[in-house]
Amino acid sequence: MHELGRRLAEALPPGTLVALDGPLGAGKTVLTQGIADGLGIAPREVTSPSFTLCRVHPGRTTLVHIDLYRLAGESDAHDAGLLEWLDDPRDALVVVEWFERLGRERADVRVRIAFAGTGVRRVSLTVPPAVVAALRRRPPAG
Ligand SMILES: Nc1ncnc2c1ncn2[C@@H]1O[C@H](COP(=O)(O)OP(=O)(O)O)[C@@H](O)[C@H]1O
Ligand SMILES: [Mg+2]
Fold first, then answer.
1. Distance between CA 109 and CA 9 in Å, rounded?
2. 3-class secondary-structure state, position 95
3. Backbone angles phi and psi of 36, in degrees to 5
4. Which has the least CB within 10 A, 20, 21, 88, 105?
5. Residue nearest to atom 13 of ligand 1 (CA)
6. Domains in the chain, start-ordered, CATH in brackets?
7. Alpha carbon 132 to its chain's center
8. Is the pLDDT of residue 15 over 80?
9. 29 Cα–ligand 2 center, Å
10. Which atom of ligand 1 is nearest to the CA of 97?
């Protein structure tokens, strides 16, 4: 999941909104740490923000990490100023855990993670065609 994040960081242009969904413990934060790694941000800086909904990490591209686990409703997101990041990621890579809780459809990239046995995850990726090409350009590590 970390390596997938690193590869996504290389393939995604700034201004991309990435929606991460999947059950608790699926690997959404690990994937976000991989994205951070790919942007030159120390992965351990990326934690599951228990009470903060949003953290901004400066890097090669700024990573905005949003975790909506504790989101009560869209007004919550409004209060926290999150909607601005969702509506306009600007030059940042905006990664949103528990995106489904927002009840919105629009995201540039959708990652759906499911458990598929101990240590194994099944990932469904929905990305624009240009990102498919960028992901194909480099073979998987190992
Ligand atoms: N293939 C895998 N990919 C990601 N995490 C995995 C994998 N196998 C086991 N794990 C473990 O699952 C947990 C995922 O946690 P986390 O990324 O915080 O999940 P989430 O953010 O989706 O709640 C970690 O403890 C990690 O070590
Ligand atoms: Mg998490």
1. 12
2. strand
3. -55, -50
4. 105
5. 25
6. 2-137 (3.40.50.300)
7. 17
8. yes
9. 4
10. 21
pLDDT tens-digit series, residues 70-96: 887 777 777 777 889 999 999 999 999
Q: What is the pLDDT of residue 76?
A: 78
Report pLDDT digits (tens) over 83-132. 899 999 999 999 999 999 988 889 999 999 999 999 999 999 999 999 99
Q: Which atom of ligand 1 is nearest to the CA of 30?
A: 17
Q: How many CB atoms lie within 10 A of CB 38?
A: 24
Q: Which of 30, 37, 67, 96 to mutate to test the pocket of ligand 1 (most atoms within 8 A of CB)?
A: 30
Three-class secondary structure of residue 140 per DSSP:
coil
